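Let us work through a complete example step by step.
Step 1: write down the sequence.
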Amino acid sequence: MLACRFRATVLAVAFVAACLAVPGLSAEPAAKPAGEKKQQPASSSKPPATPPRKKPAATTRKPAPPPPPPAVELIGYVVMPAGAFRGGPPSGEFDDQGRRLAAPRFDSQPVQGVSSIKPGPTAGAWWALSDNGFGRKWNSPDYRLCLYLFDVRPRAGNGTDSRTALQAVIELSDPAKFFPWRLANEEAPERFLTGADADPESLVAMADETFWVGDEFGPWLLHFSVDGELLGPPVELPDVRSPAHPLVLARAEEARLGSSRGFEAMDLAADGKTLVTLLEGTVTGDAARQLRVQRFDTSTGKWLPGTHIYELDADAQSVTDMSLIQANRFVVIERDDQAGEAARAKRVYSIDLDKAVPGKPLAKKLVIDLLSIRNTRGLAEGIAPGTAFRFPYLTPESIQVLDRTHVVVVNDNNYPATGGRGANVPDATEWIWLELATPL
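Step 2: predict the structure and record it as tokens.
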């Protein structure tokens, strides 16, 4: 079985998450003023001149209201608590500038920051990619990058329970020394990768049981075995570097991408070999709010020619994930930089690469408003049936299309952040199953 083929830490105790409270104008002519006399035309041999007609005042038309969001129903719900941990060395010993604290904040490794998901090897199983740790390169050198394998059973109706169990952990490493730059664990024989070495954001599970990971520090594409070992050098994006790239830090090259704006979104095309990548930020020199969509052929190890353009909404700040629908059609999540009641833009659009026009942004179709979800089943505790369900986390980070009318969405809780369900409430990791009335 697959579980026997990778080096994983299998946890003896599964953590169980119950569904938590997530928590008028008159038509009469105007009267003439009193005493006003009717003006008589002046005596003249010429006929009186016809006064020029006054142009009607221009009327300012109000823009038509936006169409209502597509009908989407919450049909499954799971909450993973914020304070979940797994085995491993202590973590959280560094501040945001990389200075060592008096002691680690945590005795082990937090189970947090789900950046991307893919269906696992068995029914109910899900691969989940961890984020870089504590949000920055410098405060995460003791957080070990990993892939989780979860068993996730959502609450689907009244009287049903939900469950999440961590089945295994695959820690990412580079024992063959493919990384050409010094790692945080450079001297350790396993060379485990940490949040100071890479910032994993997107995940693709291949048919050969390997994984491709999209990173933001390079940005790089990283290819791992089923055991989590790096299989080759990081794949660079031609002429684009982030501020965290080792060559930029060494002042050997200039950054052309904002910090944490790399391969945020990625999925496999229907041909089974082409990775479709979407940068989170705009490359220097490109038009504002326009993001590059590029394709990488895993069979040849080369970038394919041509770049498509994805344009963000005026009130959105970034994309977070994409998922294949069919052929070259994908869904993409856009978000703003707000959470909780202040959140206004958490949307899912569909795009079709086959309909791309050179030099023009891809056409987008709104398919899900994550802040307006029907809740007739009342699956989320504390939210009455019939009351709209909102998914107002800062980063609705992951999406997986199951079929043309069903998707799964998961947030990144950015541990130990707060604000999604309350200013002082630690953000949990919520998994939501959605049913679309209109097929993708």
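Step 3: interpret the result. DSSP finds one helix and 23 strands in the chain.
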